[in-house]
């Protein structure tokens, strides 16, 4: 496994992160979604600056290059970019009774299948656990579902999001942490 280093994302990183997200949506969803669904995905996936502002969004680097990005949230919003009308829910979650959210996980396509997503996921889960959360939820894309299943998540709801035009299938997933 490559040496993956993590850093908190900062406002100055936003353009680079958008480029990673755009590449990941365009390339890594092929084989899982139609071209129309990939185009539609751009409306329902992407950057949420609130994660950067909250200090819960990370950049994964390999040899200095951005290999991926992902985060977690103590807020109720489950998925979607800043522009997600109707899905923004900034309310803070109760760690004792509500799951943290794993958010906006993307691997730069040149680094796919090298453990970046798994490392980011583990890093985010550890941060959420460190703040007292006993579970995490996420919205899995078709390309991400195999990773999440192998990491112990289970499907709790099937979703079709058609806000971008063509309906994009996704799965709401949950992982309960084992007690310490």
Summary?
This protein is of the alpha+beta class and 180 residues long. It has 5 helices and 7 strands. It has a single domain, classed as Aminopeptidase (3-Layer(aba) Sandwich), CATH 3.40.630.30.
Structural notes for this entry:
The chain has 5 helices and 7 strands; from the N terminus they run βαααβββαβαββ. With about 180 residues, it is of the alpha+beta class. The protein has a 7-stranded mixed β-sheet with strand order 1-2-3-4-5-7-6. Strand 2 and strand 3 form a beta hairpin. The radius of gyration is 15 Å and the shape is globular. The protein starts with a strand and ends with a strand. The relative contact order is 0.19.
């Amino acid at each position: 496994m490559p040496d993956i280093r993590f850093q908190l994302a900062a406002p100055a990183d936003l353009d680079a992160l958008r480029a990673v997200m755009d590449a990941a949506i365009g390339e890594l969803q092929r084989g899982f979604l139609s071209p129309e669904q990939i185009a539609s995905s751009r409306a329902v996936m992407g950057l949420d600056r609130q994660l950067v502002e909250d200090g819960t969004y990370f950049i994964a680097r390999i040899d200095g290059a951005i290999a991926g990005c992902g985060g977690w949230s103590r807020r109720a919003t489950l998925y979607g970019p800043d522009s997600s009308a109707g899905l923004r829910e900034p309310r803070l979650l109760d760690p004792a009774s509500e799951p943290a959210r794993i958010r906006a996980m993307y691997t730069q396509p040149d680094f796919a299948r090298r453990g970046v997503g798994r490392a980011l996921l583990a890093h985010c889960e550890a941060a959420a656990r460190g703040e007292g959360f006993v579970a995490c939820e996420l919205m899995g894309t078709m390309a991400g579902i195999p990773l999440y299943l192998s990491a112990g998540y289970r499907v709790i709801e099937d979703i079709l999001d058609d806000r971008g035009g063509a309906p994009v299938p996704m799965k709401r997933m949950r992982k309960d942490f084992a007690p310490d």
